[in-house]
Amino acid sequence: MTPKPAVTGVVKDEVRVRYPAGKQPALTLPNGDRRTVQSLLNIRTRMKFGDFVWNDDGVAPGAVWVRIDLSRQMLSVFRAGQEIGSAVILYGTDGKPTPTGVFPVLEKAERHSSNLYDAEMPYMLRLTNDGVAIHASNVRFGAATHGCIGVPIEFARLLFAQVKRGDLVAIVAAGT
């Protein structure tokens, strides 16, 4: 027996969970803005460090934004209201935490090296003037960053190709 969807009209297929018009959920950003979600990726297994899913097949061009959930250690990429990518992330430690809030992408660099930590930061998307960025990293259990968001390298490459300067990144605090 197939369980009934929580929202009438929700369609689950191999790739997406699609919400009908008028029943689409909205995600609240740390600044109070709300973003409507038309579909989510249908990820049916528990993701672990280094895992990601990317599928933008059939998703129209449109506004891109990113949501980072520190409590779940997950990053989701949305285009035209549809989730096109999701990845397990690394983030900052207690001594050098990742800031929360809504940040525009200030700068992009395919190849970047941190002058503060002498570390390579491939596919860097700068979020703050003091160096916090999303970038490729070796995402593994027990690792952390100096406040940045680390994502698997292939995911970082795909994200870098989607995001442009000015696109918004919402970082939601752990425990909220």
Give an overview in words:
A hairpin with a 4-residue loop joins strand 12 and strand 13 (119-120). This protein has one helix at residues 153-162, and strands at 11-12, 16-18, 26-28, 34-36, 39-41, 52-54, 64-69, 74-79, 82-88, 101-104, 107-109, 113-114, 119-120, 124-126, 133-136, 149-151, 168-172. It contains one helix and 17 strands. By secondary structure, it is mainly beta. The protein starts with 10 loop residues before the first strand and ends with a strand. The longest helix is centred in the C-terminal third of the chain and has 10 residues, at 153-162. Mean pLDDT is 87; it is low at 1-8. The chain has a six-stranded mixed beta sheet, with helices on one face. The chain has a four-stranded mixed beta sheet with strand order 11-14-15-16, with helices on one face.
Q: What characteristics describe this protein?
A:
mainly beta; globular; 1 helix; 176 residues; six-stranded mixed beta sheet
Secondary-structure blueprint:
Blueprint: E1 11-12, E2 16-18, E3 26-28, E4 34-36, E5 39-41, E6 52-54, E7 64-69, E8 74-79, E9 82-88, E10 101-104, E11 107-109, E12 113-114, E13 119-120, E14 124-126, E15 133-136, E16 149-151, H1 153-162, E17 168-172
Parallel strand pairs: 7-17, 15-16
Antiparallel strand pairs: 1-2, 2-5, 3-4, 6-9, 7-8, 8-9, 10-17, 11-14, 12-13, 14-15
